[in-house]
Amino acid sequence: MAAKKENSLAPIAYVNARLLDPASGLDKLGGVLTEGEVISDFGPHLANKDLAKKKDALRDIQVVDCKGKCLCPGLVDMRIEIGDLAATVAAAVSGGVTSAVCLPNTDPVIDDMSVVEFVARRARKQGLAKIYPYGAVTKGLEGEELAELGLLAESGAVAFSDGTKAVADAQVMRRALSYASTFGLMIVQHPEEPSLAADGVMNAGETATRLGLFGIPEEAEVIMIERDLRLAGLTGGRLHIAHVSTGAGIDAIRRAKAGGLNVTCDTAPPYFALNEAAIGDYRTFAKLSPPLRNEDARQAVVEGLKDGTIDAIASDHTPRDEESKRLPFAQAAPGGIGLGTLLAVSLELHHNGHMGLLDVLRLITSAPAGLMGLPAGRLEKGAPADLVLFDPEEGWKVDADALVGKAKNSPFDGRPVQGRVLRTVVDGRTVFEPEN
Amino acid sequence: MEQGGKDNVHFPHRHLLGIEGLSPEEISILLDRSETYVEQNRRADKTTPLLHGRTIINLFFEDSTRTRTSFELAGKRLGADIISMSVATSSVKKGETLIDTAMTLNAMHPDVLVVRHPDSGAVKLLSEKVNCAVINGGDGSHEHPTQALLDALTIRRRRGRLSGLLVAICGDIMHSRVARSNIHLLNTMGARVRLIAPKTLIPPGIERMGVEVFHDMTDGIKDCDIVMMLRLQRERMSGNFLPSIREYFHFFGLDYEKLSHAKDDALIMHPGPMNRGVEIDTEVADDVGRSVIREQVEMGVAVRMAVLELLALNPDNGPDNRGSG
Fold first, then answer.
1. Mean pLDDT across the stretch B181-194?
2. Is residue B312 less than 8 Å (CB to CB) from chain A?
């Protein structure tokens, strides 16, 4: 996978593109002109080469012919686990992701200013996708004492979460929401009541019973969502619920939104593209947290995306090595990688007729960027030139071993998908093009 | 295959990982072959050297006396070299031990591995890493196929058939691999299965496996041909599945009063080891007219001989075909 770095940043005109900007609703033949690291112009008037050249007298202008393929803002992924940093940022740009927010469950935990700065600095050095950190809600993610939310935010934490652990104690969550609202900060909750999930390793129901595996009932999620909606109402805090996966949980959020509560949520591709049948005969790549649910739940997630209850899609990229997955199902680590398949699997919502192309793209560009307050996810003059060029139709088959990055634990291994990244641009530089 | 047993019976699977998915014909092949060993085991000379020169390894990641001994005896009576290994399981890195142990044993060219493991699916995982036949000796709460086969053989010999019988399985269904294998087998063979337990010990969605669920012993046992009791593990008390053993026995323990609602000649079964006074009254357990618990142990050896023979002599498991599936 060629990750090219061009030293000179001559002006580049991306012409003859289907230009898509979900934030403004733009979907026209056009082009983008970048100068240095920013977008200097874009629009239908840059559709073809001649126009682009005439546009101004810029010397040394490079012209990239997009051949009618889709050009849109680089994707924004609001939740990944970072794993091996270099491998993860490479996986990100291979999937068209130019900005991502990493969970604080790193080693060391992002519960201290120095770690926030360290993560951001190391990611910048790679010059690939931009990584922004979540700060921990509680020290050491232990769910007991609040982390220094204000100071962490000042050093660059964009939102707060205890990662894949729920803030379980109701009083701690109440204080976290309340204190965070002092500074206008968002608390992102992993919605799972731990005592109900304690022995469970997959969704409760017939499949788990057949396999002899202990189940996690959907109510573990629903109860936590309903509790937190109450606490958000009580405190006026800003609550975002991560990876919703149940119909009843989505309903609760839908009702809360209708009642005027300032709450948002997201989901991840496995929850609208897969169900628990993917576990088959103990496939540990399909062991996720929250667990894959049944088909009714999957359809409820699609509905939640269609009617706007679900505000964004995050990849939930969770790299795991072979040793932690080649185990009996109950012992295997949960989590799946998702950066390389975020675009293609999300586009299934478009190909299956559920949503328009711009609506799908909004969920993985401007919507998560807006939630996280990132300078990304939209075409704007003067904005960082983070772009992705893709062919929405091109079919390919997910081959976990062929995905960019170290970890191979894709729950989508073997799945035929449509939609291929042709070029990823970060700060005006092409950082990814597929090999063939 | 002229060395292949008493006649040309072919069991078309490389492994025996579970009952789910076996056809009635395949189950009958195993039961019919087991019958011949029941007779052989009652003779003075109990051995046939069918598996002479073959190596069987019992690999037990979980404590077991009965199943392990039963397999050992079965292997010896077939003339095989059989060894048993108990692998201590540290709670942290069990899985690593599983794959590592599998690879190590595989290098010793065994013909059959009999595996018991506390995790559901672990035996299947191991079967993917070795080149020999693998028999599931019980995995987590998933399956225990030879137990279901020996239960079926016991019933069939007593009642002449399985089809049409009404069988009640009582007790800790939630954690029981014996229950799951029996549900699959009995349903496949045309018997009707009832489950009886308090709600905390009934796993969700089990009614979709073709069973009727009861929470009252008297109702559930009514008109049953077979009453199969399951072992209750005492650690279930600490998980708040049940308040006390006294209460459990009062409502779900098998005594003569509850048994009186079953058919007059209903058979009582238990996979062992029994907790007398917990799930079964001592007198009922020892009632020679009704209880076939000791017969189940006898059938166990015969069934395991049949399974070992049919898998070890399956040409698909021959040296030429190893690694092909």
1. 98
2. no
